[in-house]
Amino acid sequence: MNSAHARIAVVGAGLGGLALARVLQLHGRSVTVFEREAATGARPQGGSLDIHGGSGQVALRAAGLLDRFRALARPEGQVWRVVDPVTATTLPVPGPEHDEDSPEIDRGQLRGLFLESLTEDTVRWGCAVTRATPLGDGSWRLLLDDGTTEDADLVVGADGAWSRIRPALSDATPGYTGVTLVETGLDDCDTRHPALARMVGNGTVLATAAGKALLAQRNSNGHIRVYATFRTPENWQVAADVDLDDAAAVRAHLLKMFDGWDESLLDLLRHHDDGFVNRPVFVLPAPHTWEHVPGITLLGDAAHLMPPVGLGANLALLDGADLAHALITESSIDDAVRAYEDLMLPRAARAAEESAEVLDNVIPPTGS
Question: Where is NADPH bound in this sequence (predicted)?
Fold first, then answer.
């Protein structure tokens, strides 16, 4: 089918799905995004992202949003410092490698840029897709959790780690890496916690030793996001008898775990404002591939979930822009999806391998 008049359904209003929708609309194509969240501000959108010149910014340029991105982005935020866990003194060790031009921006701000750029009613909020089923002619039917259905000539699963669209293409499911992040944060840090603000600086500070790490990341508006990271069984809280809803209990457990580290680093855990969120790190098998199926594909974490070390969001943006470009330039939907998958799948495999190496460098596996 010619893609110019195709019914395109994007499942998931994350960065990749919105990038796809925006580029398509710039070229006069119709698209609908189905999002299970009730509204744009239904939940926190996570921390700061470094948007790389060779990937994420390429997508922003294709979306006509690069100038607006640069007006919000924080070039000073791409600075990394690695510090000694015991003394908090800066070590002569570089942070993770990335493009020289990789300014930071809060994920929520970046998502907002895309949402503001789309035509009204592009995103259908509160529409949770439970699965996609083929109709036999290359088109697909989406089943929503309210029992209604929507038909589309192309379905794009942009619905993240636990994608409801992925099973139509692949039996793969995310597996636990053995690493867990426990996230918290400090508000108005420049005023309320100036010593911690100075220690973190404008970018990111990292301390790591013996299979665990503390990372603090500057966000906008004086907020600092903190991640306590460690290798552990997935349900560590059960063995530790810690109620994850009890912030005091989680804090006490983490302070014991990081006992002996510099007091200023431990203060990042003591003076939290956000409570604690447990985030076990899951990944898809790498490489994750599938046999091409007409009328359906994946992008972002739905296609290539990998450790959160700075590549995932950039790849999702680039996936969205590349798929849109293929749909605009190829003569049929099937040709477009094949061209996109031929480009995206090997790129994602390389990035997944690189991300796994970064995670192992920061939190070495036991015995290494």
Answer: 43
**pLDDT tens-digit readout, 329-342:** 999 999 999 999 99
191-232 pLDDT per residue, tens: 999 999 999 999 999 999 989 999 999 998 889 999 999 999
Burial (CB count within 10 angstroms: exposed 0-12, middle 13-18, buried 19+), residue 173:
middle
Share above pLDDT 70 across residues of the chain, in percent, rounded to a whole number: 96
Q: How far is CA 335 from CA 328, 332, 339, in A?
A: 11, 5, 6
Q: What's the 3-state SS for 160-179?
A: CCCCCCHHHCCCCCCEEEEE
Measured in residues, the chain has a length of 368
On the question of pLDDT at 4 being above 80, the answer is no
Binding residues for FAD: 50, 107, 301
For 258, the domain range is: 176-282
Residues 164 and 117 in one domain: yes
Q: pLDDT value at position 368?
A: 47
Instruction: Look at residue 80 in the predicted model and tell me its pLDDT.
Output: 87
Angle at 20 between CA 14 and CA 22, to 5 degrees: 95
Query: Is residue 223 a part of any domain in this protein?
Result: yes
**For 295-315, what is the mean pLDDT?**
95
How far does Cα 323 stand from its chain's mean position? Answer: 18
State whether 170 and 180 are in the same domain: no
Contacts of 231 (CB under 8 A, 6+ apart): 178, 179, 180, 211, 212, 363, 365, 366
Return binding residues: 43, 50, 107, 301
Query: Rounded to whole angstroms, how far apart are CA atoms 224 and 13?
Result: 25
Asked if residues 296 and 132 have their Cβ atoms less than 8 Å apart, the reply is yes
**Segment holding 322, helix H or strand E:** helix 312-329
Same structural domain, 357 and 291: yes
pTM across the whole model: 0.94
Q: Which of 345, 280, 329 is nearest to 308 (CA)?
A: 280
Which residues are part of a known binding site for NADPH?
43
180 vs 260, 308, 330, CA distance in Å? 21, 11, 42
Phi, psi (degrees; rounded to nearest 5) at 292: -55, 135
Q: What is the pLDDT of the chain when averaged over all its residues? A: 93
